[in-house]
Amino acid sequence: MTNEQLVYLTAHEIAKAFGAPEDGRGTIDCDQFIDSNGTKRHYLMWPDVMRNVTMQEKALSPCSKQAIQANLMRCKSSCFEISKYPFCGNGNVYCTMLLHVV
To answer: Is the overall model pTM greater than 0.90, yes or no?
Structure first.
């Protein structure tokens, strides 16, 4: 994995922790865009984050931005309180797998 791929994989995971689901839900706004050459591309939260090559692919889709905003509005300052239970912003507990590996 290159340093650039690691940066965008980390950004993908941080966005997930703030409540952005992976794209790929069947809506054009979330799943894809057409670049200036007419090529279909995907945003940062597309499940295959390792293929992001253009700057727009390294950005959040409008749907991801809305999901993060809604999550932050819902929890406000409680999002940043220390919790004794593992959780991620979208409500899925991915963190427990990491606890067993470490």
So the answer is: no
